[in-house]
Write a structure and sequence with these properties.
Shape: globular
Number of strands: 13
Radius of gyration: 22 Å
Strand content: 5-15%
Number of helices: 16
Structural class: alpha+beta
Order of helices and strands: EHEEHEHHHHEHHHHHHHHEEEEHHEEEE
């Protein structure tokens, strides 16, 4: 057996002295740069951020090993837990090892199908609120910033489900919580890739903006937690069957079922808010763009929605919302081509070998998940938008490697919010197909992929019209 290759021996883009490739990165297009370098250097190459070498890969075998061997061999991206902890929201997403294990059970319980079933009426009502908002826009000729619209929707859903509170940002003018959340994601990306932690020595103007946004969100969450404790004190019967994620965490803390601190509770509330707002909203926004770009596929989905909804404008119950196979296939194909997580970062916990490459402890790996799902070796006509490839009654044309499609991650750290995200996606897309037509407000304006911890559409300005 040949000796493992040193990571530093791999081909990769030439970097600057000391800083490596860090100065060459445009973080709003980070994923596109890594994908472009994969075209040049292959599916396995080297990158450097300061003194750290990183492996970048879109190899399916390596991807499966990375996802499977968490959290033992591979953790979250190097320094992610510490950076989240510094900001005060080291919850389930960023936590490692025992810290992750003790939090995961209660988060999974809060987001399971039974809880979603009980919360469906509130989700349907929020979707109806979005429909009314879009109807007014259609009647007045208003142009919608679709990602922004959908972030309001997903925050309203998340706060109802997780905290039992209706923020109603869809019908609120002025400063809303998304204004603070929007400044957090880009700075997280910059700090994670930084060759050295400058913010621990001095603060740039962007760091001060981040601090204000984090403080604002933490203050709002603190109010929510205090109100929840008061509600439980006033209605102690709720302790027997908590009605939402926050109540469940507080009850678990007070009964010592889990060693949760107040900081843990705040961190997980913050994490749910961040994760629930951005990822699902951007997936929905990309799906609306696909409605516009692929009118034949849109009409096919509309026919399915019409046949199943009858006289309703929104799926009336949980079962009907989960009875749209073509719509779900449309969503899968959207996530394959426009994933909100086009790359995934890993930290190497101890010296190991991956794919014949020696990875020292403290090094990192970037898995190019979008490139993984758009290679011809993994999917037939991989660059084409073909929702039918996901239908159970459709015989897929080879290759069709579903293991190369990982929009919610994989292995032990599979995203616990998957069921909630898919339910929101089906609710909104069914409502949109049933009631509206969509067109770009400025067809000459290029809709661009923008990376800010997640990948969303920039310049997606849409004019809704009532269905004729």
């Amino acid at each position: 057996m040949s000796a493992p290759r040193p990571l530093a021996s791999l081909a990769g883009p030439k970097g600057w002295p000391v800083l490596g490739n860090f100065p060459q990165i445009d973080f709003s297009r980070f994923h596109l740069q890594l994908e472009a370098w994969a075209e040049q250097y292959g599916e396995i190459y080297r990158l450097s951020f300061g003194p750290r070498n990183l492996l970048v890969t879109a190899d399916l075998g390596l991807a499966q090993e990375l996802l499977k061997d968490r959290p033992e061999r591979f953790g979250r991206q190097l320094n992610l837990e510490r950076i989240f902890d510094e900001l005060g929201f080291n919850g389930l997403f960023s936590a490692e090892d025992d810290n992750w294990r003790r939090q995961r059970r209660i988060v999974i319980t809060a987001l399971n199908s039974a809880h979603l079933h009980r919360s469906y009426d509130a989700m349907r009502d929020t979707t109806a609120r979005l429909e009314r908002r879009w109807r007014r826009a259609a009647q007045t000729g208003e142009v919608l910033d679709i990602p922004r619209e959908l972030m309001r929707y997903t925050v309203d859903i998340t706060t109802q489900l997780a905290f039992g509170i209706d923020f109603n940002t869809l019908e609120t003018d002025g400063h809303i919580i998304q204004d603070d959340l929007d400044s957090i994601f880009p700075m997280l990306t910059r700090r994670l890739a930084a060759p050295f932690p400058w913010w621990r020595l001095f603060h740039l103007p962007s760091d001060r903006v981040l601090d204000r946004s984090v403080s604002s969100v933490q203050a709002r969450i603190g109010e929510i937690i205090r109100d929840c404790r008061q509600r439980l004190a006033t209605h102690p019967e709720r302790r027997a069957e908590p009605g939402n994620f926050l109540e469940a965490m507080i009850v678990a803390q007070e009964s010592e079922q889990l060693p949760f601190s107040d900081r843990d509770i705040l961190a997980n509330v913050f994490t749910l808010l961040l994760a629930g707002e951005d990822t699902t909203a951007n997936t929905l926004a990309w799906a609306i763009k696909m409605f516009i770009d692929h009118p034949e596929a849109f009409q096919a989905v509309r026919a399915e929605v019409d046949a199943r909804l009858g006289g309703d404008s929104i799926p009336p119950d949980y079962a009907s919302a989960n009875d749209f196979p073509l719509l779900e296939a449309f969503a899968n194909e959207t996530m394959r081509l426009k994933p909100v997580a086009p790359l995934n970062g890993f930290g190497v916990k101890a010296d190991t070998v991956l794919g014949g490459i020696a990875l020292p402890a403290g090094s990192g790996v970037f898995l190019l998940t979008r490139r993984l799902a758009t290679r011809e070796a993994h999917f037939h006509e991989a660059e084409s938008f073909r929702p039918q490839r996901w239908l159970l009654n459709h015989t897929p044309v080879s290759p069709h490697h579903t293991r190369a499609f990982v929009p919610f991650g994989g292995g032990p750290r599979y995203c616990p919010g998957r069921n909630l995200a898919l339910l929101e996606i089906k609710l909104v897309l069914a409502m949109a197909c049933r009631n509206f037509e969509f067109s770009l407000a400025e067809p000459g304006l290029q809709v661009e992929e923008e990376f800010a911890f997640t990948m969303g559409p920039g310049n997606l300005l849409v004019k809704p019209a009532l269905r004729q």
